[in-house]
Records
---
Amino acid sequence: MKHLDAYRDADTCRRLAAEIRALTTRPWSIMEVCGGQTHALIRGGLEELLPESIRMIHGPGCPVCVTPIEVIDQAIAVAERPEVILCSFGDMLRVPGSQESLLAAKGRGAEVRVVYSPLDAVRMAEAEPTREVVFLAIGFETTAPANAMAVRVAKQRGLANFSMLVSQVLVPPAIDALMQDPATRVDAFLAAGHVASITGTEAYPELSRRHGVPIVVTGFEPVDLLAGIRRTVELLEQGQAICDNAYSRVVAEAGNLAAQEVLREVFEPCDRQWRGMGVIPQSGWQLTEAFADHDAQRRFPHDAPPASEAAVCRSGEVLRGLLKPTDCAAFGRECTPETPCGATMVSSEGACAAYYHAGR
Amino acid sequence: MPATIGLVGGHPRVACDSHEPAMCLAIPGRIESVHEDRGLRMGRVNFGGVVKEVCLAYVPTAGIGDYAVVHVGFAIAQIDEEEARRTLATFEEIEQLDQEEPQR
């Protein structure tokens, strides 16, 4: 398939890996921020192609993993209301809340439906005017334009029975928070190309300078990842803490202007709690006042008591790149994708699930 | 069929075979048709034979035959063919350097 096969070509991968080996003179730790990239690295066996001195650290960019426990509890409480149909992306269903998951609530009779696109939830609100359709709007900058458009369309079509429970998160504040943590040992970042395709690369040069780390934007296919790593190693070896774009066929420097316009209309920045990482200032988006009528947070207020992770779960350390999944005592024992202790074992983008499926 | 790197790790899988759709997954597809649904720019996009209805509001200049990266039912970026050509050309340069290396 065009724009896919060429970026999965094994020979190109081997050549890029040989280049990386030739460039590398010292040990470097590179964090791939995005969970999609973590899975691609592990599924493709790319880490085995890299020299031993290049250590890939898996970052917190898994939207399902960082959605706070309280939001899941709230989603369950909302779903339990008889008038409500709660719509969610599929990989949220198994994530454990403080007591149970959305899937367990569904098993007890709560109306929880999986949607592929947020627009499916809007169509559901149109088709079932007597029900309250609540969409669990989670995600990073990549997903935000889709979620924003859904609520905008619902408002335009006068669908008073559509609302969103929003837990949107942003990548640059997370990189900033990680680099401010003295425990973090990261020399450079691979930034997620699809996030940057929306926002552009504007935020990164300043982060590079301030923290002295190269940041290379790249894609999700094996060749893209290795090309991104190659450029990162080149910058590290040259001592250049700058931002570069290795995904120029998809990422324009200014980003997607049409999406940015809708995002500005629908969302405004807010402080956001990250599961495993705590509150990060200005790291999320919430609905603007103009969309208050479609804000499930306001329409279905729920005082979720502060909840904590299962004692055995160390996903917070995994998300911050401090612990390899396999170094957790629960990994593969009490914690598996079927019986997950934490969100990183659930999501198709979580580091623990990636290691488990790769048979590590 | 070209060799794909999925085979390196012994797990020949494609990115979209997960039984639970990964919400962050975005894949390229070819726009086959464009239409409007009550003011919203929509289209049919072909992903290697699977055709899906996709919102094209965020790729206002993309038309039939263009490729776009699609995420949760929305085209989020039009693929820049010129940049794609340039990127692939740099990989070929690496290959040539590789082949020249032993003669030095």
---
Amino acid sequence: MSRLKHSEHRLAWLLCAPAVIAMLLVTAWPMLYAFWLSLFRYDLRFPDKYEFIGIDNYLSVLGSEAWWQALSNTLVITVASVSVELVLGFVFALIMHHALIGRRLVRTSLLIPYGIITVVAAMAWRFAFDPTTGFVNALSGMQGAWLAERWSAFFVIIQTEIWKTTPFMALLLLAGLTLVPVDLIRAARVDGANAVQRFFRITLPLMRPVIMVALLFRTLDAFRIFDTVFVQTRGAQGTESVSITGYNALITRLNLGLGSAVSVLIFLCVIIIAIIYIKGFAIDLSRREHS
Amino acid sequence: MTTTKDHGLSERLFWGLGSVLVVVYALIPVFWIISLSLKRSADLGDGRFISATVSLEHYQAVFSDPQFPAALWNSIGIAGISTLAAVMLGMFAAYAIVRLEFPGRRLILATALAIAMFPPISIIGPLFNMWRVLGLYDTWFGLILTYMTFTLPLAIWILSAFFRSIPWDLEKAARIDGATPLQAFIKVIVPLAAPGVFTAAILVFMFAWNDFVFAISLTSTNDARTVPAAIAFFTGSSRFEQPTGSIAAASVVVTLPIIIVVLLFQRRIVAGLTTGAVKE
């Protein structure tokens, strides 16, 4: 290695070191520590009972109905919101792509749900569906106490997620749409392909990479849902998500051992989802690292 | 834009109508919360979408209680310092990743991406335990440090995407024209890099401003409790009174800056949040 190369490497690592060390210190280290804690009986309310118990915490989490309930709740919320978002996001993206006069206005309006604090969005929708303060019942003539029953509560939660995060999906898809060559669409039109055929035969296949990345980001993001559920139901009516389960064990009940086991399991779920996407749908993330 | 000529009148009407619907859908909850915040306490239960009366009583209530002003100050300070720190460190890293050849640059980007997708709930337990022992629990510094789990990856990704599009050769050209390295950097590179840095700062700030999980897990008092946490834990003046009006007013106060930023910088924000996900 030449001396010049050597000094370039050193400079590069020197520049990257603060950021890399900070990231590892606040993420990798706590994660390892969580794994370590998960192997102990460690309840801050009974600190003297601290002892090594191996995988017992995992066994009790995996053996509890509450965990599986929370996991299936989380999957229901994730699948429902991400799939509606994909369709709706495409509709929004196509509207922005084709609308000439309103494009700027639409884009600006969509950035507001994206930028608004999630807790605020969840509050706004909670009040909207509330039987006494809300306008939803008043306008629709319905009588329901939406957040007091399981499936209607799910509806409100998922609806809030969709409202808040479809803009992200739509803006990514719009960026993808602009990469589809106009000439190709025009040629297909000349050849007699109708709008639906053009969309499914040309646009959609060409956008596959963008769609996959958007889906991966949104799925992982939806899986860790916390704010909306916390604000709207606190997990009542059987709507608890895995993140709420973890929070309750760790912060509400101060059971660091059991809570850490939940944390590690959530982390494993996220890794499994990422692997399914990357291997299963062959997403090439590395290709995005150089333009 | 190039598809303009292909559009018939009916098609244009179709997309125009679609635009209107999207705008209405995106803004309904915003108008709703503004309207709710302006209702008098007595009218909170009237179920009207548009408030019949206009009253500022909830705004007065929110600002006369010590809780909300403290939270607002905490949020501004914590999100602001987090942004400065992340953009600063992110700039060094992104510069190295884009400009220097060294093994591991891919690894750093991949690590940053992986960390960005990390579930925050997985680390609150250990952080809660460590911050308690280190005296960082319920402090600004404790939250700022914690926020680096998402602010740094975001800053590194956005900045390296932007830095990649800078024509760095201009620096060399300025040098040939007789500028010193420092002059070349300040006069040529800084103006080119500034928009990207600014964009990264806006997005990082928005993420830090939004955090809820860390804020409720690692703070407990007005010392460091941020706005989202304060709003979620607002209490009414009596145990039986729902603080609906106060929550609505506080929500409007913290949403207005977001709306202003979005109106001013929509182009940059869109560019920032789509870089990295879509190949340019």
